[in-house]
Sequence to fold (874 residues):
Amino acid sequence: MDSTAPYLTGQSVSLSAGSFSGLVTAAARAAGWVLTYWYVLAAAAVIVWAVGEVVVRRLARKASAERMALELEPSRHFDPGLEEIFRRGVQLARASTSMPWWAPRRTKSVQIRLRADGSSPLRYRIEGPAGAERLLSITPFGPNVTVNRARPIVDRPREHVVRAEFILRGRPTAPLRDVPLDPDPLQPLIDAVSDLRAELGDLAEIRLDIQRAPKWVLRARRLQLMADARRSERREAQRAARWMRQDAMGVEDSLALHLQQLVSGQKGGGGRRLVMPPVPRRVDPAVALGKLAEDDHLVRVQLLVTTASNTEGRAHARLAQIQAALDVFGGVSRWAMRGWSVGPWRFGADRWPSRRGFERRWQLGHCQPPRANWVRLDELTGLLKPPTVHCRLPLLAGDLPTFEFGNPELLLQGIYRGPDGRRRLVATYAKETLFEVGVGKAGGGKTERALAQAIGWAHAGGGLMFVDPHRDSWPRALPFLAHDHLMQRIALIDLNAHGTSPQVSSWNPLGMHQGQAAHEVVEAVTDAYAAVLGWDDAGAPRALTIFTAALAVLVAVNEAACRAGRPEDQATIFHVRALLTDMGFRTAALAAVEGRLDEETRSWWQTVFPTLPADAFAVVLNPIARLAANPVTRAFLGQPAGVYNIRAAMDSRMIVWVCPGGNGPTDRLITALLARDLLRAVRSRRDTPEEQRVPFRPYFDELITLTGAAPETIAAMFEDFRKYRVHVHGMTQLLARLPAAVRLSLVQNASTLASTAGSQSAVAPITAEWGDRPGPDVVASLDRFEHYMTLTVEGRRIGPVRITGPHLDEVFADFARPGKAAALERSAQAMSGAAPLDRLTARAAEQFNRVTGFLAQHVPATTSAVRLPKKGYQ
Fold:
C-alpha cells in the first residue's frame, strides 16, 4: 500500500470541510447583504415590473387598434336551437385567439356588447380581432340574423356615470343556472332597460369578454382547487376526530357510567379507551373540480357594466335593475358585484383604486378577468345570441314616433303605456301609412280611433273623406272640427234627411261640368250598377249593353250642354227611362249628339236597338225607378249640375263627410255610385305629376255595408290608390264577412292591421297574420278601446303591440268647440250646396222639360269631344 494514501485522504477531508465552511460563510454574507440592502432588490423588481407593464400596455394598445365590430340584427322569427347557440359560442372562443403572436393575453378576447341608449331596445354587437371578421360574419343562425359591419360608437358625456364589474361568487366549480330559451334569457335584461328615456340621457351597456385561457393557467387553478379540497377534507377529519374524543371522554367521566359500575359491581378498565380517529377521505377530482374537470369549451369571462344619465339617481337605479336581471342566471354560482360596502358607501369599479383599471379595460377592450370567472360555453347560452322570437321587446320612442298636434308628417295611432307606466300618444309616418284595417266588435273603439286620427289629420291640414252609412260619426266629430280655419274646408253630404226641414246636397253622376272624361263617367256609372245588380258579361250581357249605350248618349248630351254654356240643362240618370221608352226624346238626343258618338255606338242605336223587345228594358229601368221613388235619392241625383266633386276635394285638401243613409237596395246603389266615382276620380290623377298629387285619406266605416254594394271597387282601391297618394282606412266588425277579393286586398296591403275585442273566431283571421302572437284568446279578452296592432315605421313592421285607442274627449279636449257646432253644420251644408228637400225635388221634376228644350234648340255638334276645365265646390 502506498504510504502517502492516509495523507491524501486527510487532505481531501480537510479541503471538503473548508469548501463547505466557505459556502456557508458566503451564504451568510449574501443573506446579510439582502437584509441590509433589501430596498435595492425591491426597487429593481419594481423597475422590471414597471418596464414590463409599460411594454405590455403599449403592445396591447397597438393590438386593440386592430379590432373590428359587427352588429347582429335578428328577424322577427329568430328562434335558434341550443346546438346553433353552442356552435356560435365555439366560434367566439376560437375567434378570441385570432391575434398576432406578439399581442398580450389581455387583448386576445371577443367582446359581446349589449347596449341600450333609446335607439333600440337592445343592440347586440360583437367586437373582436380583425383577423376573426370572416369567421364571425357567417353565423350558425343563418338568414334569420343579419350581420353588418358596425361603426365605432361615440357617446356624448353624461353627468352621472356608474360602473360595475361582476364576478362569480358561490362555489367556484359550480355552474350557473340552466336558463331555458323560452322565455328568452335576455328578457330580464331587456326589462331592466325598458323604461330608459333617451331625452334624459339614459344609457346602459353590458360587456361580456370571452377569452380562451392558457393550459398552464387552468392547471394552476386545478392544483389550487385540489389543494383547497384536500385541506378542507383534512380539517373535516380533524374536526370529526376532536368531537369523537370529546364524546368518548364525556362518556367515561359521566355520572351515569359510575352509577352503572356501582350497581353491577364491575370496575372500569385500567385506562382510557383507545379512540381511532377517522381517516381523511380521498378527494375525487371530478367532485372537487366540478366544471373545471374537463378542458373542452372552458373559457374565462369578464363582465363589465356601465349605466349613465343626466338625471341624478337614474344611473344607480338602472344598475340595480341590471344586477337583479343577472340574478336570473344565478344558482349555486351567481353573478355578484365586485367590491365591498362600508355603510352607505361602496368601494368597487366606480371608485379608486379600481376605477382607472376599469376605464382602461372599458375603453380598449382588454380582458383581465378575475381568477374565479371560469365558465363553460353552455352556461352562457342566453348571452351568445341576439333576442329571439320569445323575447318581448319594449316600444321605444325611436321605434314609434310620438304624435305631435298639427304635424302633417305624423298620423295618430293611439296611446302606448310604457313599462314605467308613462303614457304617450304614438303615431306613424303619414307617407308610410298607405292602408289601414281595423277589426273588432261594435262599440270596441274602431270608429273612435278612426275619428281621432281623421281629426288630427284635418287639423294638420290634410284632406279626407269619411264615409259613414249610419251618420253617427258626424255629430261625434262636429265639436272637434268647429274651428274657423277648418270651416271653409268641410262639406257634408247627408242623405239621411232628418229633421222637419231636411237639407240635401246634389250630385249628377253623368254631369260633365266638372271636366270629367266622357268614357270614364260612362264606365264608372255602368260598373257601379253592374256591381250592385250582379250584372256581368255572362249573366246579363244585354242589360250591360243597353245601359252603356244609353249612358253614352246622355253623357254626350251633357257635354254638348256644357260646351254651349248651359250646364243647368244637363240630363241625369233618370233620363235613361225617357231615352229608352220615349221615341221623341230619343230621336232628339241622338240627333243632338250625332257627331259625338263613336261609329259602333251610333250603329248599335240604328241597327240593334229597333230589334229589342219592350221587356228587354225592364232590368235596366227597375233600379232607376226605385231611385226615383225615393224623394231623397230623387233630389240628390236629379239635379243637372251638382256641387259634389270628389276630385276637386282631393286636390284642395277638403274634408268631406258622406252619409249614404242606410244599407237597403237603394242605399247600396248610391254607395256603389259614390265608390265608383271615387275610384274614377283617383285614377284621373294620372294627369298630375306624382310629386304634385296632394295626399288624401278616405275613411270607410262599416266596410261590410260598403263592400256589399261595391266589392270589386273597394278591392281595387286597396290595390291601386297608393300610386296616386290616396290612402284608404277601413273598419269592419267581421273580416270573414267581407268578400274574398276585398279581404285579401286588405290584409295583403295593410300598413296598419288592428283589432279590438271580439269573439275568438272573429279575431282569429287577424291573429293568424301575426303568427298567433298574441293568440285569439288574448285579443278576444281586450277591454274597450284597447287594440292590438301592427304598424309600419321606416319600412319595418312594429308589433303586434297593445295600444289604447284615443278617446276624443281626452285627447282632443282642448280642440272641442261645442258652441260652434251649429255654425259648422250650416257651413258644411253650404259647402256641399245643400238645399231644402222639397225645392230639390221640384227642380228634379222640371229637369225633363229643360233637357227637352235644350235638345230642341241645339244644333248637332260636328267637332270631337274635349275635356272641360275642372270646377270645385262653389
Notes: Residues 861-874 have pLDDT under 50 and may be disordered. The longest strand covers residues 298-309. The CA atoms of residues 235 and 280 lie 9 Å apart.
